[in-house]
From TrEMBL:
InterPro entries: A/G_cyclase, A/G_cyclase_CS, ANF_lig-bd_rcpt, Cyclic_nucleotide_synthase, Kinase-like_dom_sf, Nucleotide_cyclase, Peripla_BP_I, Prot_kinase_dom
Top enzyme category: lyase
MF annotations from Gene Ontology: adenylate cyclase activity; ATP binding; GTP binding; guanylate cyclase activity; peptide receptor activity; protein kinase activity
Its EC number(s): 4.6.1.2
Subcellular location: Membrane
Protein name stated in the entry: Guanylate cyclase
Length: 1207
């Protein structure tokens, strides 16, 4: 935060300000189209230096909020915390409630330019440091009152928003109610309608509330004030026009147009689809007595301003891509608000400086802008009230007309408002355009009042003879009409009493588990608990398996089949299909079709149970088939479709189609494999016909529509508007495609290279006559390996001439009989049992394959976890035990990094750096495997290792880290960089001993992490160390002295950041024999640490092998061999050959650091000596890689007695 220092008033004042511009240029944000206004305003602000005594400079910081609330808040925090000295936030848009709270906490003003949610702030808006340049519709009330007073309307009916929806229109309704009362206006009535806030199309819905509102209010008012969504206003105005009829001219509607108008579409206020039809006079008549308050449009030269804004849009950082059209696109309204926000802020800070106040104080800036008029780039002044919101400036709009009174398809301004600079009140003044009233300006009430009490002539109507005659005639006509209506109602009630009408509340939808239990009602399944649950957590497990559960849910509850779910209705399992329809006309024809479909009963027809029409949703309830559709079965490679299964399914299909063709429906019209369902008994049932008016989809993608037409006959495709039910010959063609799909199992058109759209296009354009020599375009039947009669039957069924195709009842039935011989038995029960037996055998094979796949995945999961965490921690997780953080009294930590890594990175490519680090860390990892240590992590060029956890190892941790450090340092001296072979790699190493805490941290990519001051001290030792040296702390050195065998020199007191001065040492070398004696002693001691090491079994130092000689054979030492031993030494001569030398026990003390191995006397060759000597040689080779001063590296191991004597 910058601090304002008041300078000498006589001297020139200079100040710098940084504006943080936050907008969304990606993820469908509008910043690409409006962001240039910020940079245009910034240029004008820096250029406007009219006052010579004040020189201001305005800079900026830009952030892309990506149209997400989290990114917007992060952008505000980043710009504030990155030491940019941000003076003001210009944006972010849309998330202004949270942004206002955050900006206020930073004491930085927030200039919003696209905000409609300030009502959600928990406190008064004046408590936050926000200025909203976008006008809020909540302040339109004073303009509406001004309109009512200007036209002399003293009473009105208010249709507003309801509480608890969005509260935007509810607040405006409350303010208008209170303001009208204070100005002496009478509120005849009020309706609070939730549809005004949360609007969806209700024109054809039975729940449209506006006709009832109008019926209840037309006898009580003539003036309506409508506050709500503009689409809801359109429905209200149309309902008023329909209900009032010829008296429409007596009513007027005053409303707010809250939409951001498209200036290139003048007729958008009518909300009609102009692509399908032109605007008619009837469309305009509906809006004739409608007065709209619309935000005043900018008077600035649009093309010049838009051109300048888009010039900046095409530049960095907005980087809008130029289109092919050279014309400047239409400018969005937000661009004006962005420009005003920048300019108003500049005016405010200049005004504060002149007054001698702090311009960097957010409260000062906000207070300067509130309750003031400010000039706008739009060409007029805007008023910012005491809450910091722009109240906007409006114009009164009406339908335009020419001199002859003919209505024109646009609206023009018929009045303006003068806003008082003293109290902000609005006064209406008529414009130069006329209003095209229907019958002149309406009055706010009839001449005699709504009840006729104001008329002096109070004669009663029934006293006039003509009126009495009219009443009698009307009564007779009413009785006759009532009789006819009564007969019609009785007939309609008969239709409405049919069982097809279902209440959705009577259906109980099942979840995936219930569906599985229903399909496979065997013994109850045990709930399997994952052994990693304690580690992963319920949230991550849910996220990890979300896609898998969704896949299973779709399969088991039929969600993948056009939105079908499984439920229970009156004790029976049913399939419930939901179809979204904006409008369904439940007429007599549809009711009759539903009744017929309900009464159809056949073994191969899927039973239609009923329908629930609850717009915009329609639920179709039918019999549930557990094996889904024939299409699903064909796609499943595990399905057992042999000749017997296929023949049985084909027989069911033609039986069902024969029944449909003989019924009153006569056709199916949309026959395909997805409409053929299979129940648990493998019986095929035909579905989805007869109720096409309910299930027809109006919005299908071209790809999905082309796929759905692959089964349709060519003559129906060529018809512009095919009959909804199709035709019988069209069903026969679809039957042929299904036969091909059944026998080929490669889809309805096989392995064709054509897309579905290309197939449909060729079928539509096919011009085939009876004499054509070229065969018709059909799927390739040469790939089918079937009985002789199948392919000819398929060709006959998809014959290009519909009249040549066979029918189901006679021809197809006769041609299918030979195909069924030898496959289907005469007994239905025998057929069913045979089919079920084959299906069960196939399931056994599938279950075995899935079980093996599951076992393999389980092993892969466990191996992956063992690579991420120590084995002891992984074992706890495998047994379902929680891994709690643990405190360790003493551990040793190793840190190293590469000297000059930054310079090396600058001179190398990223891939070369990655290859170098991979080679180096691979070398380090191979060394780490030889010690009782645990590799914690690598960060860039830093390498971190610890010893003494997760399994404690006494005081050995310091020795393990020290020995490993010497080994690493020796390996680095011979390491060569691939892309720079002549360069020498140098590292710094720091080691330290102390307490720490360790545990598993995180759920995403979890790590076993260390915490404590010991970690920081080890890191400081590494950073203050020298190249190719091991920097050791006093604590670590003390333990190494106790262990013995390590050579260190004192470096002196070193000043470490945050630690003060500390005495440190350099580790030079080690005595290998001391380390080996330690290892042997701990291995031979009771309760040794053989099985407690934390590294892998490839560590040669800890492979658990102690060697001795018995009866001439080299053996591994066990617990029974603690008596007499001799000393066995393995070494290499100058030629590289191995030699074995025996020494007596007395030579142990004299050998010292030479490195010897004890063994019994009695030397002679044995059967296993070479195998064991080879293992010992591997151990010696590993030891020779360490940097030690001895001239000879060898391995010494002692018995318990021998070791005690030596110590």
């Amino acid at each position: 935060m910058q601090v304002w220092n008041q300078q000498n008033p006589s001297a020139q004042l200079t100040a710098n300000f940084t504006l943080a511009f936050l907008t969304a240029t990606s993820n469908k944000g509008h910043g690409k189209l409006t962001g240039g206004a910020f940079f245009l305003a910034l240029e004008h602000l820096n250029a406007n230096q009219s006052d010579d005594n004040i020189r201001l400079h305005f800079d900026y910081v830009f952030k892309d909020t990506m149209n997400m609330d989290t990114m917007a808040m992060r952008a505000m925090v980043d710009t504030h915390c990155d030491k940019n000295n941000v003076s003001v936030f210009i944006g972010p848009p849309d998330f202004c409630s949270n942004a206002a709270v955050l900006a206020t906490s930073f004491d930085i003003p927030y200039m919003s330019y696209d905000c409609n949610e300030m009502h959600s702030l928990t406190r008064n808006m004046s408590d936050y440091l926000i200025i909203n340049e976008e006008p809020s519709g909540i302040y339109v009330s004073k303009f509406i009152v001004s309109v009512l007073q200007g036209f002399g309307w003293k009473s009105f009916w208010l249709v507003g928003g309801a509480e608890g929806v969005t509260n935007v229109w509810a607040d405006t309704t409350n303010i208008l109610n209170s303001l009208a009362t204070s100005h002496g206006l009478t509120l005849n009535g009020i309706n609070r309608e939730p549809l005004n806030d949360a609007y969806h199309s209700s024109k054809t819905s039975s729940h449209n509330p506006y006709p009832d509102i109008i019926n209840n209010s037309t006898r009580k008012t003539r003036v309506y004030v409508f506050l709500g969504d503009y689409n809801a206003l359109v429905d209200f105005v149309r309902a008023l026009h329909d209900r009032t009829g010829s008296a429409r001219g007596e009513y007027v509607v005053v409303a707010l147009d809250d939409t951001k108008q498209q200036r290139n579409n003048k007729t958008s206020f009518l909300r009609i689809d102009e692509t399908n039809r032109n605007v008619t006079s009837n469309d305009l008549e509906v809006f004739r007595n409608v007065l709209l308050l619309r935000s005043l449009q900018p008077t600035t030269e649009q093309k010049d301003f838009a051109k300048l804004v888009y010039e900046y849009n095409y530049q960095d950082p907005i980087n809008l891509t130029k289109g092919i059209i050279s014309a400047v696109p239409k400018l969005r309204q937000e661009a004006f608000y962005i420009y005003d926000a920048v300019m108003h802020y500049g005016e405010a800070v200049r005004q504060l400086i002149k007054l001698g106040q702090d311009p960097y104080n957010g409260q000062n800036v906000v207070n300067t802008l509130r309750s003031t008029y400010r000039k706008s780039i739009q060409g007029f002044n805007v008023y910012i009230n005491d809450r910091g919101e722009s109240e906007g400036t409006y114009a009164l709009m009406s339908v335009a007309s020419d001199r002859s009174g003919k209505l024109l398809p646009w609206m023009w301004p018929v009045g303006n408002f003068n806003v008082s600079s003293y109290n902000g009140s609005a006064n209406y003044s008529p414009g130069d355009k006329t209003i095209a009233w229907i019958n002149g300006k309406p009055n706010h009430e009839p001449q005699c009042g709504f009840d006729g009490a104001k008329c002096e002539n109070k004669d009663k109507p029934w006293e006039h003879p003509l009126m009495i005659a009219g009443l009698v005639l009307s009564l007779v006509l009413a009785v006759g009409a009532a009789f006819l209506i009564f007969r019609h109602v009785l007939y309609e009630q008969r239709l409405d009493r049919l069982s097809w009408k279902i209440e959705f509340s009577a259906i109980e939808l099942l979840d995936a588990g219930q569906v599985r239990q229903m399909i496979s009602p065997g013994r109850p399944r045990k709930k399997v608990q994952s052994r990693w649950k304690a580690f992963l957590g319920s949230t991550d497990m849910a996220m990890a398996s979300e896609q898998e559960r969704e896949r299973k849910l779709r399969k088991e509850s039929l969600l993948g089949a056009a939105g079908i779910k499984v439920g229970v209705y009156r004790g029976s399992h049913v399939a419930v299909r939901m179809v979204v329809r904006k409008h369904v006309e439940v007429n007599r024809a549809l009711k009759k079709a539903l009744m017929m479909r309900k009464e159809m009963n056949h073994e191969n027809i899927n039973r239609f149970i009923g329908a629930c029409i609850d717009l915009p949703r329609v639920y179709i309830v039918s019999q549930f088939c557990s094996r889904h559709s024939l299409q699903d079965i064909l796609k499943n490679e595990d399905s057992p479709l042999d000749d017997m299964f296929i023949t049985s399914l084909v027989q069911d299909l033609y039986k069902g189609m024969t029944f449909i063709h003989d019924s009153e429906f006569g056709y199916h019209g949309n026959l395909k494999s997805s409409k053929c369902l299979v129940d648990s008994r493998w019986v095929l049932k035909i579905n989805d016909f007869g109720v096409g008016a309910l299930m027809a989809r109006t919005c299908l993608s071209p790809v999905f529509r082309a796929t759905s037409l692959l089964w349709r006959a060519p003559e129906l495709l060529r018809t512009g508007i095919p009959p909804p039910q199709g035709s019988q010959k069209g069903d026969v063609y679809s039957f042929a495609i299904i036969l091909y799909e059944l026998y080929g199992r490669r889809g309805p058109w096989g392995d064709t290279k054509l897309s579905n759209s290309d197939i449909v296009r060729r079928l539509r354009t096919e011009d085939y006559t009876k004499q054509a020599s070229v065969p018709p375009f059909r799927p390739d039947t040469s790939v089918l390996q079937v009985k002789a009669g199948v392919v000819p039957l398929i060709h006959e069924c998809w014959h290009p001439d519909p009249d040549q195709r066979p029918d189901f009842k006679n021809t197809i039935r006769l041609k299918l009989k030979p195909l069924q011989q030898g496959l289907l038995k005469s007994n239905i029960i025998d057929n069913m049992l045979a089919m079920m037996e084959k299906h069960a055998q196939n399931l056994e094979v599938v279950v075995a394959e899935r079980t093996e796949q599951l076992s393999m995945e389980k092993r892969m999961t466990e191996n992956l976890l063992l690579r991420m965490l120590p084995r002891s921690v992984a074992e706890l997780l495998k047994h379902g035990q929680p891994v709690a953080p643990e405190q360790y009294d003493q551990v040793s930590i190793y840190f190293s990094d590469i000297v000059g890594f930054t310079e090396l990175s600058a001179q190398s490519t990223p891939m070369q750096i990655v290859d170098m680090l991979n080679d180096l860390y691979t070398c380090f990892d191979s060394i780490v495997e030889n010690y009782d240590v645990y590799k914690v992590e690598t960060i860039g060029d830093a390498y971190m290792v610890v010893s003494g956890l997760p399994l404690r190892n006494g005081m050995r941790h310091a020795g393990e880290i020290a020995s490993m450090s010497l080994h690493v340092l020796a390996a680095v001296t011979t390491f060569r960089i691939r892309h720079r072979p002549d360069a020498t790699l140098k590292i710094r190493i720091g080691i330290h001993t102390g307490p720490c805490c360790a545990g598993v941290v995180g759920l995403k990519m979890p790590r076993y992490c260390l915490f404590g001051d010991t970690v920081n001290t080890a890191s400081r030792l590494e950073t203050t160390g020298e190249a190719l040296k091991i920097h050791c702390s006093q604590e670590c050195r003390d333990i190494l002295e106790v262990l013995g065998g390590y050579h260190l020199i004192q470096r002196g007191l070193i000043d470490m950041k945050g630690k003060g001065k500390k005495m440190t040492y350099f580790l030079l070398s080690e005595d290998t024999s001391q380390r080996m004696r330690r290892i042997s002693e701990e291995r031979l001691s009771p309760g040794g640490w053989r099985e407690q090491r934390c590294v892998s079994a490839s560590n040669m130092d800890y492979n658990g092998k102690i060697f001795f000689m018995e009866n001439g054979t080299v053996r591994k030492l066990s617990g029974d061999h603690y008596s007499r031993h001799q000393h066995l030494e393995l070494s290499n001569d100058s030629a590289g050959c191995n030699h074995v030398t025996r020494h007596s026990l007395s030579s142990i003390a004299s050998s010292g650091a030479s490195g010897t191995v004890t063994s019994p006397s009695n030397s002679q060759n044995g059967a296993g000596v070479f195998e064991e000597l080879a293992e010992m040689q591997c151990l010696l080779d590993n030891t020779r890689t360490k940097t030690v001063p001895a001239t000879r590296s060898s391995l010494s191991m002692f018995s318990r007695d021998g070791l005690e004597t030596h110590l």
